[in-house]
Amino acid sequence: MLERKEPVLSNIKFHFAVSRYINLLEKLENIEELISIKWKTNFAVFKDNRTSFILFFNCGFVNVTGIKSFSEISKTLDVFCILLNISRNDIGSISIDNLTSSGSFGHSINLTNLQQYIKFNQADFKVHRNISYFPGLFCKHKSFGTIIIFQNGSFTLIGSKCLNSRDQLFSLMDAIIPKL
Fold it and tell me: Which of the 8 DSSP states describes residue 61?
Protein backbone atom coordinates (compact mmCIF):
# COMPACT_ATOMS: atom_id res chain seq x y z
CA MET A 1 0.00 0.00 0.00
CA LEU A 2 1.16 3.51 -0.77
CA GLU A 3 1.81 6.09 1.91
CA ARG A 4 -0.48 9.13 1.85
CA LYS A 5 1.24 11.95 0.01
CA GLU A 6 -0.14 15.46 -0.53
CA PRO A 7 0.16 16.85 -4.08
CA VAL A 8 3.72 17.65 -5.11
CA LEU A 9 4.32 19.99 -8.03
CA SER A 10 6.28 18.26 -10.81
CA ASN A 11 5.91 20.58 -13.81
CA ILE A 12 4.86 24.09 -14.74
CA LYS A 13 4.01 24.88 -18.36
CA PHE A 14 3.83 28.58 -19.20
CA HIS A 15 4.04 30.86 -22.21
CA PHE A 16 4.97 34.41 -23.12
CA ALA A 17 5.30 36.55 -26.20
CA VAL A 18 8.47 38.20 -27.44
CA SER A 19 8.39 41.73 -28.85
CA ARG A 20 7.31 41.85 -32.47
CA TYR A 21 10.57 43.68 -33.21
CA ILE A 22 12.59 40.58 -32.34
CA ASN A 23 13.18 38.08 -35.15
CA LEU A 24 13.19 34.72 -33.32
CA LEU A 25 14.24 32.79 -36.42
CA GLU A 26 17.30 34.99 -36.82
CA LYS A 27 18.12 34.79 -33.09
CA LEU A 28 17.98 30.98 -33.18
CA GLU A 29 20.16 30.80 -36.27
CA ASN A 30 22.78 32.85 -34.40
CA ILE A 31 23.01 30.29 -31.56
CA GLU A 32 22.57 27.10 -33.60
CA GLU A 33 26.21 26.15 -33.11
CA LEU A 34 25.91 26.49 -29.32
CA ILE A 35 22.78 24.42 -28.67
CA SER A 36 20.86 21.63 -30.36
CA ILE A 37 17.75 22.97 -32.07
CA LYS A 38 15.00 20.85 -33.61
CA TRP A 39 13.58 22.78 -36.54
CA LYS A 40 10.00 22.43 -37.75
CA THR A 41 8.06 24.34 -40.39
CA ASN A 42 6.82 27.19 -38.20
CA PHE A 43 8.53 26.54 -34.87
CA ALA A 44 11.72 25.30 -33.26
CA VAL A 45 12.46 23.46 -30.02
CA PHE A 46 15.55 23.63 -27.86
CA LYS A 47 16.39 22.50 -24.35
CA ASP A 48 18.42 23.96 -21.55
CA ASN A 49 18.98 21.18 -19.02
CA ARG A 50 15.46 19.83 -18.36
CA THR A 51 13.60 22.92 -19.60
CA SER A 52 12.15 22.89 -23.12
CA PHE A 53 11.47 26.03 -25.14
CA ILE A 54 9.13 25.92 -28.14
CA LEU A 55 9.40 29.09 -30.24
CA PHE A 56 6.80 29.98 -32.88
CA PHE A 57 8.42 32.25 -35.47
CA ASN A 58 5.41 33.93 -37.05
CA CYS A 59 3.82 35.21 -33.85
CA GLY A 60 6.74 35.47 -31.42
CA PHE A 61 5.05 33.08 -29.01
CA VAL A 62 7.16 30.89 -26.68
CA ASN A 63 5.99 27.84 -24.70
CA VAL A 64 8.14 26.67 -21.80
CA THR A 65 7.88 23.39 -19.90
CA GLY A 66 10.01 21.42 -17.48
CA ILE A 67 9.97 23.95 -14.65
CA LYS A 68 9.59 22.38 -11.21
CA SER A 69 8.86 25.46 -9.09
CA PHE A 70 7.57 29.01 -9.47
CA SER A 71 10.92 30.36 -8.29
CA GLU A 72 12.55 28.86 -11.41
CA ILE A 73 10.45 30.92 -13.83
CA SER A 74 12.51 34.11 -13.50
CA LYS A 75 15.81 32.21 -13.81
CA THR A 76 14.47 30.41 -16.88
CA LEU A 77 13.56 33.71 -18.52
CA ASP A 78 17.05 35.02 -17.75
CA VAL A 79 18.60 31.99 -19.44
CA PHE A 80 16.33 32.45 -22.47
CA CYS A 81 17.29 36.13 -22.78
CA ILE A 82 21.00 35.41 -22.42
CA LEU A 83 20.92 32.62 -25.01
CA LEU A 84 18.99 34.67 -27.56
CA ASN A 85 20.74 37.94 -26.67
CA ILE A 86 17.55 39.84 -25.97
CA SER A 87 16.43 42.09 -23.12
CA ARG A 88 13.90 41.07 -20.44
CA ASN A 89 12.00 44.17 -21.59
CA ASP A 90 11.36 42.35 -24.89
CA ILE A 91 9.34 39.66 -23.07
CA GLY A 92 5.65 40.23 -22.50
CA SER A 93 3.60 39.00 -19.58
CA ILE A 94 3.87 35.39 -18.53
CA SER A 95 0.81 33.15 -18.43
CA ILE A 96 0.63 29.82 -16.59
CA ASP A 97 -1.07 27.22 -18.80
CA ASN A 98 -0.83 24.05 -16.74
CA LEU A 99 0.43 22.72 -13.44
CA THR A 100 1.17 19.02 -13.01
CA SER A 101 1.30 17.49 -9.55
CA SER A 102 1.13 13.99 -8.13
CA GLY A 103 0.57 12.26 -4.83
CA SER A 104 -1.30 9.43 -3.15
CA PHE A 105 -4.43 9.03 -1.06
CA GLY A 106 -2.57 6.27 0.80
CA HIS A 107 -4.98 3.41 0.09
CA SER A 108 -6.51 1.57 -2.83
CA ILE A 109 -9.66 2.98 -4.41
CA ASN A 110 -12.47 1.18 -6.18
CA LEU A 111 -12.56 3.25 -9.35
CA THR A 112 -15.91 1.84 -10.50
CA ASN A 113 -17.56 2.94 -7.25
CA LEU A 114 -15.84 6.32 -7.42
CA GLN A 115 -16.96 6.85 -11.01
CA GLN A 116 -20.57 6.01 -10.15
CA TYR A 117 -20.57 8.17 -7.02
CA ILE A 118 -19.24 11.21 -8.90
CA LYS A 119 -21.57 10.66 -11.83
CA PHE A 120 -24.68 10.75 -9.62
CA ASN A 121 -23.58 13.11 -6.83
CA GLN A 122 -21.08 15.64 -8.17
CA ALA A 123 -22.46 17.87 -10.96
CA ASP A 124 -19.23 19.90 -11.12
CA PHE A 125 -17.25 16.84 -12.28
CA LYS A 126 -17.26 14.89 -15.51
CA VAL A 127 -15.74 11.42 -15.23
CA HIS A 128 -14.26 9.24 -17.93
CA ARG A 129 -12.68 5.83 -17.86
CA ASN A 130 -11.70 3.40 -20.58
CA ILE A 131 -9.89 0.49 -18.93
CA SER A 132 -9.01 -0.96 -22.33
CA TYR A 133 -6.65 1.95 -22.94
CA PHE A 134 -5.68 3.49 -19.61
CA PRO A 135 -5.82 2.34 -15.98
CA GLY A 136 -6.87 5.67 -14.46
CA LEU A 137 -10.17 7.45 -13.86
CA PHE A 138 -10.26 10.98 -15.29
CA CYS A 139 -12.25 13.37 -13.10
CA LYS A 140 -12.49 16.79 -14.74
CA HIS A 141 -13.81 19.62 -12.61
CA LYS A 142 -15.55 22.49 -14.39
CA SER A 143 -13.27 25.08 -12.77
CA PHE A 144 -10.18 23.57 -11.18
CA GLY A 145 -8.60 21.08 -13.60
CA THR A 146 -8.46 17.31 -13.82
CA ILE A 147 -7.42 14.65 -11.34
CA ILE A 148 -6.49 11.22 -12.68
CA ILE A 149 -6.91 8.58 -10.00
CA PHE A 150 -5.46 5.07 -10.08
CA GLN A 151 -6.68 1.98 -8.27
CA ASN A 152 -3.64 1.89 -5.98
CA GLY A 153 -4.62 5.34 -4.66
CA SER A 154 -2.03 7.39 -6.51
CA PHE A 155 -3.17 10.42 -8.47
CA THR A 156 -2.00 13.02 -10.97
CA LEU A 157 -3.44 16.53 -11.06
CA ILE A 158 -3.32 18.37 -14.41
CA GLY A 159 -4.85 21.43 -15.97
CA SER A 160 -4.85 23.81 -13.01
CA LYS A 161 -3.43 27.25 -13.66
CA CYS A 162 -2.61 28.10 -10.05
CA LEU A 163 -1.79 26.27 -6.83
CA ASN A 164 -5.05 27.39 -5.22
CA SER A 165 -7.13 25.66 -7.94
CA ARG A 166 -4.96 22.56 -7.71
CA ASP A 167 -5.37 22.44 -3.93
CA GLN A 168 -9.14 22.97 -4.17
CA LEU A 169 -9.42 20.11 -6.66
CA PHE A 170 -7.43 17.82 -4.39
CA SER A 171 -9.52 18.82 -1.34
CA LEU A 172 -12.78 18.12 -3.17
CA MET A 173 -11.65 14.64 -4.18
CA ASP A 174 -10.13 13.98 -0.77
CA ALA A 175 -13.59 14.68 0.73
CA ILE A 176 -15.40 12.44 -1.78
CA ILE A 177 -13.25 9.31 -1.45
CA PRO A 178 -14.20 8.48 2.19
CA LYS A 179 -17.87 8.42 1.10
CA LEU A 180 -17.35 5.34 -1.08
Answer: E
